[in-house]
Amino acid sequence: MSPDLPEYYFRVRENGAFVFRVDTENRHRRIEMEQIAVVNVKNGEIKPHGGRDLTKQDLREIKRWMAERVATLAARDIDDIHRAVDYLNLTTHWAQSRATDAQLDEVTDALLLAMHDLRSVLVRKKADRLIDRTGTGTRG
Question: What does pLDDT average to over the chain?
């Protein structure tokens, strides 16, 4: 195996990846990728491809990749939320300083409904967390 190429390649898809074993030590000295599995990070499922048995090393590398992928996706989620906060602030500044009446007419109802929905969810979730911490009241 070439020291520059990994032994496994993960072709990312929406819920996981197709897993390939990378081979450069063949008679043609070409890169060959043989699909060995399909993984789903949402439910943790690992399906061997083509009726093959995965080795312990295959499973170890796939599980390592899955753990890294879950962490990456979680970090992206929270980063997206921080960006949403920035966009809300930028939107507030735009509405206050630059928006025309026509532009405000176009977006006001949609923004108010989205913000009301978000506020309702955030208030309910915060109340649930406070109840859980204090152990008082019931959750419905």
Answer: 92
Residue 51 belongs to what domain range? 1-79
**Domain count of the fold of the chain:** 1
Asked whether residue 25 is domain-assigned, the answer is yes
Q: 77: buried, middle or exposed (CB in 10 Å: 19+, 13-18, 0-12)?
A: exposed
Per-residue pLDDT for 113 more than 80? Answer: yes
Among residues 37, 55, 19, 52, the alpha carbon closest in space to that of 9 is found at: 19
Helix (H) or strand (E) holding 37: strand 32-40
Residue 92 lies in a domain: no
User: pTM above 0.85?
Assistant: no
